[in-house]
Write a structure and sequence with these properties.
CATH class of the largest domain: Alpha Beta
Helix content: 25-40%
Number of strands: 37
Distance between the termini: 34 Å
Bound molecules: guanosine-5'-triphosphate
Length: about 850
């Protein structure tokens, strides 16, 4: 299957707003180092027995219970003592940052008084992920505000949020790059990554997920689960990341808590744990009830400000609102049932001591049980609010600290190879004009210190790191060390790119490789499996669009090459190659928007005005039949004779589809006498010929290859073997008959009833096939399949057809064969005949 990705375009993009500018004021630089013996590991699990529901039914204990007047216990600091260390504050010089207000009084600016290396149990590495426009950036901005790191609330629509700092992000009101920010909330260090929702930047989400321990999935409460939510949810499943759901936009027209929860349950196939219920919906939304504590939280604007800082939290009494009171009571009983069903330790407690009265269950016991089931990914806590209207974000922050895991509660298989040696992962690169590349790293084991040499396993090189910085909101604070579980920025690493593994030395890498190798033998794992554990890289799907890119003059070619190589280090989904026939530079990307943004960044950040050729589709080639070919290469170079005879068979693959990696087999007579280096040379030859198919030069997919025979003269170099095999492959592929495949996209359009027929008529003209039309509140959701070639400029057309009211998402589904007419039309176009 192709790597899943999709893209979403809102047909109504907000216009760029005025950029508010503020001056940066910093408090005095001071840092404290935390040393604490606090260790909050998960309680040991007990073997599961019958379900709680079954057992409680047997015992007949499912009753309604009286009000629990317990107050929520505040999280008191468990810190031991603080020790002063040196720290330097550096204001961000990122070219595009608008500087923001920070509290100036000492004691107010938490970042400047923060501990540098909090105890690992107090760290939360969290991602915010969602469908485009669900409100990730707005929620992040509120978190920074309530935790005291910014003094004014930025707005996505005004283009002045902290995390969307690129000019393109601020102008378009979308997140393009993930942004990592650090802040403290109630004695916890939160490293938070705001990820893009637009599918062209899915790889950006994927690489962040590698370093996260938990995630907050944000939903638009009026839309529930949308297409890109499914994609990011699948990505989080793949990395086994515990999650919390935040139903945002509860203030919006048509917001529905019940609808959103149902869609989470049905579409994401997960068990939602309702930890809150909203008080009011849409226009009447004014607060929430904490189902765990049965307290109501009502936000109240002060006379001059409605920034959400002022809220009242008090027990919900029956007299306040009898029906809400009953709803909360039921919700709490259901929650207890659900958790007991999933957690034996809690079930025992509930069935024993508290079987007569659930209200007496201590809060900490219930919370610990919710935490255990969340960490085990058996269920997902659900909270709600409205980030834009400043409601619900503080309880969300509390939930992050309470229910999402600390780094030491996650298990990473590769850690065992490193023991206590340094193992860190570079997960993001930013280019800073004055300081060069800034590399974000997460430390898994050992510690990282500035002014030290480190070894990059992927690049097999030693590099020197000059400084370590913590990205507190949009300030960066220099720190003396980085401990396991934490995230920071490094200055000075010139070779390291996204996805690289960093260790202390070459010897330490070798020792880890030996341990991994030994283990691989023990567990019957292949050496390449062990290697992949050692190198925690990022999977990048193949691009679907490409175009030529030209500098304004030949003199600027070198500058353009440099700019592209910097951008590629930041963005592994950007591919750059040279057209072997024309010598032109080719830019390959994940979507129209992706290429547009790269073009814009080259102009703004590197000052090069480039010209893009027309956007083209990255088709694939495959074969129709099995075929055999033989090739002989006989060449004398200097005094050496290179002589190879190869015979190969190619066949269409029947099983697993959409892979450009051919399955290679050897005839028994060949494999018996094949040295490893020669095998590598043969496989290089086969792979190279699959990169550029014989018909139009597109990658060849879904083929099996058998090396039938191979004769090699003793003096022949391996390069000549590869060349002969490659030529033989090309012959075999041509004989087998080439079929062109085009990317087929899953398209989901959300449109009002009034504009439905216009959208459907347009779809019919685009070779689209409609699979389903669903209802989502007052809107219709059209699920269809459409060739990628027919989606160029679709956002503009849909916007005009629906007066800007529709939204759509596209996701690569598969590659489908072009019919013979379409294929010959494409051939003619590519040859310039039409
Ligand atoms: N009504 C309402 N609008 C909101 C809320 N939160 C965010 N918005 C608006 O929704 C739009 C998108 O918000 P963002 O915070 O940029 O959403 P995002 O998920 O970060 O978007 P991408 O990163 O581009 O995917 C903006 O116009 C926000 O003002 C909310 O709670 N209620």
């Amino acid at each position: 299957m192709p790597a899943a990705f999709c893209y979403a375009i809102t047909a109504t993009h907000p216009e760029p707003g005025p950029h508010s500018r503020h001056k940066l004021r910093l408090g005095p630089a001071e840092a404290l180092h935390l040393e604490t013996a606090d260790n909050a590991g998960p309680a040991e699990r007990r073997p599961r027995g019958n379900s709680f529901r079954d057992r409680s039914r047997m015992l007949g204990i499912m009753k309604k219970f009286p009000i629990n007047a317990l107050k929520s216990s505040s999280f008191c600091s468990e810190y031991g003592y603080f020790r002063k260390t040196k720290m330097r504050v550096i204001s961000v010089t990122q070219q595009n940052h608008n500087l923001r207000h920070f509290s100036s009084s000492q004691g107010d600016v938490k970042s400047l008084r923060s501990v540098i290396n909090p105890h690992i149990s107090r760290i939360r590495n969290i991602g915010i992920m969602a469908h485009i426009d669900a409100g990730k950036t707005t929620t992040t901005e509120r978190m920074l505000y309530y935790s005291g790191y910014i003094r004014t609330l930025g707005d996505v629509d005004d283009g002045d949020t902290v995390t969307d700092f690129m000019v393109q992000e601020r102008e378009r009101g979308i997140t393009i790059q993930s942004a990592a920010v650090t802040f403290d909330w109630k004695d916890y260090r939160i490293n938070l990554i705001d990820t893009p929702g637009h599918v062209d930047f899915t790889v950006e989400v994927e690489r962040c997920l590698r370093v996260l321990d938990g995630a907050v999935a944000v939903f638009d409460a009026s839309a529930g689960v949308e297409a890109q939510t499914l994609t990011v949810w699948r990505q989080a499943n793949k990395h086994q990341i515990p999650r919390i759901c935040f139903l945002n936009k509860m203030d919006k027209n048509r917001a529905s808590f019940t609808y959103a929860v149902e869609s989470i349950e049905q579409k994401l196939k997960t068990k939602p744990l309702l930890l809150q219920l909203p008080i009011g919906e849409a226009k009447t939304f004014r607060g929430l009830v904490d189902v765990v504590t049965k307290e109501q939280i009502i936000w109240k604007p002060t006379s001059h400000l409605d920034d959400g800082k002022n809220f009242e939290q008090k027990p919900l009494l029956e007299a306040d609102d009898p029906s809400l009171f009953q709803e909360v009571q039921d919700a709490r009983n259901t929650l207890i049932e659900q958790v007991a069903d999933l957690d034996d330790e809690f079930a025992e407690l509930v069935l024993g001591e508290y079987s007569e009265n659930f209200d007496l269950i201590p809060l900490d016991k219930l919370r610990s049980a919710i935490r255990r089931v969340t960490l085990a990914q058996k269920a997902v806590p659900v909270l709600c609010g409205s980030a834009l209207k400043n409601k619900g974000v503080q309880p969300l922050l509390d939930a992050i600290t309470m229910y999402l895991p600390a780094p030491n509660e996650r298990s990473y298989e590769f850690l065992q190879w490193y023991k206590d040696d340094l193992c860190a992962l570079a997960f993001k690169v930013l280019h800073d004009k004055s300081r060069g590349p800034l590399v974000f790293v997460r430390v898994y084991s050992g510690s990282l210190k500035p002014q030290s040499a480190v070894y990059n396993i992927n690049k097999s090189c030693t590099e020197r790191m000059s400084r370590l910085l913590l990205p507190f909101a949009d300030q960066q604070i220099e720190i003396p060390s980085l401990m396991p579980g934490n995230i920071a920025l490094t200055v000075g690493l010139k070779q390291s790119a996204t996805g690289d593994t960093i260790v202390s030395s070459k010897a330490s890498a070798a020792a880890a490789a030996r341990r991994a190798g030994r283990d691989a033998l023990g567990q019957k794992r292949s050496a390449s499996d062990a290697e992949s554990l050692l190198l925690a890289g990022v999977e990048v799907p193949d691009p679907v669009f490409f175009c030529t890119i030209e500098p304004p003059s030949m003199a600027k070619q070198q500058d353009l090459d440099n700019a592209l190589s910097c951008l590629q280090r930041e963005d592994p989904s950007l591919k750059v190659k040279l057209d072997p026939d024309t010598g032109q530079t080719i830019l390959c990307g994940m979507g129209e928007l992706h290429i547009e943004i790269i073009h814009d960044r080259i102009k703004r950040e590197y000052g090069i005005e480039t010209y893009l050729g027309p956007l083209q589709i990255a088709y694939r080639e495959t074969i129709l039949n099995a075929a055999q070919a033989t090739d002989v290469l006989d060449k004398t170079v200097g005094d050496k004779r290179h002589c190879v005879t190869a015979e190969l068979e190619v066949r269409p693959r029947l099983g697993e589809r959409a892979t450009t990696k051919p399955a290679i087999e050897y005839a028994a007579s060949v494999i018996e006498v094949l040295p490893k280096e020669l095998q590598e040379a043969i496989e290089n030859g086969i792979m190279n010929s699959c990169i550029q198919g014989p018909l139009l030069g597109f990658p060849v997919q879904d083929i099996d290859v058998t090396v039938q025979s191979l004769t090699v003269h003793p003096d022949t170099s391996h390069t000549m073997v590869s060349a002969c095999v490659s030529r033989c492959m090309q012959k075999a592929l041509k004989k087998a008959g080439i079929q062109i495949l085009e990317p087929l996209m899953n398209l989901e359009i959300t449109v009002s009833e009034d504009h439905l027929s216009a959208a459907l008529a347009d779809l019919a003209q685009r070779r689209g096939s409609i699979r389903e039309i669903q209802s989502r509140q007052d809107n219709r959701v059209v699920v269809a399949a459409v060739p990628l070639a027919e989606t160029m400029g679709y956002s503009t057309v849909l916007r005009s057809l629906t007066s800007g009211s529709a939204t759509f998402t596209l996701e690569l589904a598969s590659y489908q064969a072009l019919n013979s007419q379409e294929q010959s039309a494409l051939l003619q176009r590519r040859m310039g005949l039409v």
